[in-house]
Amino acid sequence: MAILITGASAGFGVAMCRTFVAAGYHVIGAARREDKLQQLAEELGEQFYPLEMDVSRTESIQNALNSLPEHLSEIDCLINNAGLALGLDTADKADFGDWETMIQTNIIGLTFLTRQILPQMVARKQGYIINLGSIAGSYAYPGSNVYGATKAFVRQFSMNLRAELADKNIRITNIEPGLCGDTEFSNVRFKGDDQRAAEVYENVEFIQPQDIADTALWLYQRPARMNVNSIEIMPVAQTFAGMKVYRDEPAPVKEETFEKQSMSLFGKIKSWFK
Ligand code: 8X3
């Protein structure tokens, strides 16, 4: 039995591969970048199996799964970690191609892979699916438009799977991280503008990939009777900003002179005696 982790070439994925291997599990690390996977394979040894997979292409997912050796074909835990944010422009200016890529990876890829793995879990009446959502799936912020919406999809998909799979002894959790540094997340979002990416993490103690990896391992090692539906994790320094209200400029107050006011009062009194 193995743990299949997507997005294994960077950030959360690398940390989770290392953490699960160190805890004694067999890990299949799936990612696009073969060189990064090979480095990880050299570091982690026999317990780690590098699997080339592009989660943004269903054909690549299928081919990768078909290529798995017999002894690793049973997946006890699927960690849907691959995903990305692209851009922070408002919806009227965002690149539609970026939206398509996010939908393709964060939604289509995640659901396709889950659909491929679920039947074997159902047949065995055992398994665990851990999805990597985001606080962006629950809280709106400008520029999050489609990225946040894909993560809201992941959140609801996770809950809907819970509703279907509770009687199959399959656990589902949506991990929802907030500001987490030391990953490629912002470098990818800002398309290689490393300066802008670095500014996101300036002067703040952000969450580390290891925190997410430790959380995933903790979840996996809970008793089989226990399901954590979702777990939202922020750095202490990140919190809610409240509702923003954009107000119109107040209408200018018409100032009436004292003479005007008294004249109109005098006019009224005069009209009573007519
Ligand atoms: C990452 C968290 O706040 O950048 O999903 O959207 S955030």
UniProtKB/TrEMBL annotation:
Q: Which Pfam families match?
A: adh_short (PF00106)
Q: Which family does it belong to?
A: Belongs to the short-chain dehydrogenases/reductases (SDR) family.
Q: What is this protein called?
A: NADP-dependent 3-hydroxy acid dehydrogenase YdfG
Keywords noted in UniProt: Oxidoreductase
Report the InterPro entries cross-referenced here: NAD(P)-bd_dom_sf, Sc_DH/Rdtase_CS, SDR_fam
For this protein, the Enzyme Commission number is 1.1.1.381
What CDD domains does the database record attribute to this sequence?
Answer: SDR_c5
PROSITE patterns, alphabetically? Answer: ADH_SHORT
GO molecular function per UniProt: oxidoreductase activity, acting on the CH-OH group of donors, NAD or NADP as acceptor
Q: Which gene encodes it?
A: ydfG
